[in-house]
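User: structure tokens for this one?
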Amino acid sequence: MKTLSALVCLALTALHVAAADSAATVASAIKKLGGESGYAWTYTPKTVGSESAARNQAPLSGKTEKDGYTLIRGEMGDVTVDIGIKGDKMAVNYSGDWLSTVEIGENNRTVQRLRALKRPTDEAEQLLAKSTALKQEADGGYSSDLDGAWSKEMFALLGRRAADAPSASGNVRFWVKDGRLAKYEFVIRGKIATGADKKETEVSRTTTVEIKDVGMTKVGLPEDAKKKLS
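Assistant:
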């Protein structure tokens, strides 16, 4: 019995060490990306199980400079939306005029969804912090389940019915190339009540972020956008 207990303790210790090593590797890869002069990325969400939530999704492209501006661009129907970020300030242009989120209203539902958008280094750091037990996979990627309470917060952003869900879950996967974060993907899933009979329907959103043009990216924002971010 003592031998079995010792073996179990050794196995648990090994798992803990492996998780710590994996987390350190990913943290270092995120830091290395953040140290570059600039980079660009694509942000691709895919929602399954809810037509209304799927209508609120669209692929985005972004670019950022170290200690400078970030520009994210997406489409809302036939309208192109530009989002400028500097520090904790954000400005939006969807009608030809740049407006700060303060002018629009921080409690505005659309602004709250936009506030969930982050630079990949910031989002990856958050996902790493919310990972419960990171491990390296056979293909070299690093994966983990995500904290349940945080997953529920993210699931609530999918819409009113999602906000009423009692729980949600999630998982994340990171890919590292040349010691630098190259890609990550996370899935948030839960159940919503639909129809008069409140039938439960499972809904999931998979978000894939791929990094490109590292060290070659410049961000050009118009002066009126910069004023809103000053």
